[in-house]
C-alpha cells in the first residue's frame, strides 16, 4: 500500500515542522509539502495532490474555513483536517460545513493527531475528544449529517477582503494580493460595511476578531 500523503498549512513554522516530525514518524504516512498561508496552499495544490490537508483555521491571506471551501470545490477527493484553538461549536459547525472531515484543537496530543488522520483515512469524521465531551449536540449533528453553520451574509471574496482589512493591508495591497482592481476592493469594502452595518475600519477589525478571521 502506498503512503498516505499530507500537506500542512499553518502560519507558524515551528508548528508545521513539529506536526511534520510527528507524522513522518508513523509508517505509511508522509508529509509532501508545507504552506504558510491559505493562498500559498492553493498554489501548492496545483503542483501536488495529497490525500489530506491539515489546515490551521486562522491564517493570513485566506483563513482555514475559506481554504477548506476552495479545496472541497476544486479537489473534492482531498480530505481536510482542521486545527484550531477555538473550543467553539460555531467554529466547529462552520468547519464541517466547509467540507472538513475532522476538527482538532492545537492543545491535543500528537497521538490524537495520528488517530484523527487514520480515522479520516478510513472515511470517518473525527472530532477532538475535548469537543466530544463539551459539545454533545455537535456530535449528534455530525452523526445525523446535519451541519448547521452560523449564518454569514458575506460572500467568500468579501470575507477574504475583510480578513485582509483586519490584518492591516491597504486597499492597494489587497488589490495586488488578490489580483483585482482597487475599484473592486472599494466596492467589496462598501458591501461589507453595508451588510454588517459597520461604518468604520476599527469596527470591521473588531468584528473580524470576534468572528475568528484573525486573532490578536
From TrEMBL:
<dbReference type="InterPro" id="IPR016032">
    <property type="entry name" value="Sig_transdc_resp-reg_C-effctor"/>
</dbReference>
<dbReference type="GO" id="GO:0006355">
    <property type="term" value="P:regulation of DNA-templated transcription"/>
</dbReference>
<keyword id="KW-0804">Transcription</keyword>
<dbReference type="Pfam" id="PF00196">
    <property type="entry name" value="GerE"/>
</dbReference>
<feature type="domain" description="HTH luxR-type">
    <location>
        <begin position="147"/>
        <end position="212"/>
    </location>
</feature>
<protein>
    <submittedName>
        <fullName>DNA-binding response regulator</fullName>
    </submittedName>
</protein>
<dbReference type="InterPro" id="IPR039420">
    <property type="entry name" value="WalR-like"/>
</dbReference>
<keyword id="KW-0805">Transcription regulation</keyword>
<dbReference type="GO" id="GO:0003677">
    <property type="term" value="F:DNA binding"/>
</dbReference>
<dbReference type="InterPro" id="IPR001789">
    <property type="entry name" value="Sig_transdc_resp-reg_receiver"/>
</dbReference>
<keyword id="KW-0597">Phosphoprotein</keyword>
<dbReference type="InterPro" id="IPR000792">
    <property type="entry name" value="Tscrpt_reg_LuxR_C"/>
</dbReference>
<feature type="domain" description="Response regulatory">
    <location>
        <begin position="5"/>
        <end position="121"/>
    </location>
</feature>
<dbReference type="GO" id="GO:0000160">
    <property type="term" value="P:phosphorelay signal transduction system"/>
</dbReference>
<keyword id="KW-0238">DNA-binding</keyword>
<dbReference type="InterPro" id="IPR011006">
    <property type="entry name" value="CheY-like_superfamily"/>
</dbReference>
<feature type="modified residue" description="4-aspartylphosphate">
    <location>
        <position position="56"/>
    </location>
</feature>
<dbReference type="InterPro" id="IPR058245">
    <property type="entry name" value="NreC/VraR/RcsB-like_REC"/>
</dbReference>
<dbReference type="Pfam" id="PF00072">
    <property type="entry name" value="Response_reg"/>
</dbReference>
Amino acid at each position: 500500500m502506498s503512503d498516505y500523503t499530507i500537506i500542512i498549512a499553518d502560519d507558524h513554522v515551528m508548528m508545521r515542522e513539529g506536526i511534520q516530525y510527528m507524522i513522518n514518524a508513523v509508517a505509511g504516512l508522509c508529509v509532501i509539502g508545507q504552506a504558510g498561508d491559505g493562498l500559498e496552499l492553493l498554489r501548492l495544490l496545483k503542483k501536488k495532490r495529497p490525500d489530506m490537508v491539515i489546515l490551521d483555521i486562522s491564517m493570513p491571506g485566506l483563513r482555514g474555513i475559506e481554504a477548506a471551501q476552495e479545496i472541497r470545490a476544486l479537489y473534492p477527493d482531498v480530505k481536510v483536517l482542521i486545527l484550531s484553538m477555538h473550543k467553539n461549536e460555531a467554529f466547529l459547525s462552520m468547519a464541517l460545513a466547509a467540507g472538513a472531515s475532522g476538527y482538532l484543537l492545537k492543545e491535543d496530543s500528537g497521538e490524537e493527531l495520528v488517530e484523527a488522520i487514520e480515522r479520516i483515512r478510513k472515511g470517518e469524521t473525527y472530532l477532538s475528544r475535548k469537543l466530544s465531551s463539551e459539545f454533545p449536540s455537535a456530535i449528534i449533528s455530525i452523526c445525523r449529517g446535519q451541519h448547521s453553520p452560523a449564518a454569514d451574509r458575506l460572500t467568500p471574496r468579501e470575507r477574504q477582503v475583510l480578513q485582509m482589512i483586519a490584518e492591516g493591508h491597504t486597499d492597494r495591497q489587497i488589490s495586488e494580493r488578490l489580483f483585482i482592481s482597487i475599484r473592486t476592493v472599494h466596492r467589496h469594502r462598501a458591501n461589507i460595511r453595508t451588510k454588517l452595518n459597520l461604518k468604520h475600519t476599527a469596527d470591521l477589525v473588531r468584528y473580524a476578531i470576534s468572528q475568528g478571521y484573525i486573532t490578536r
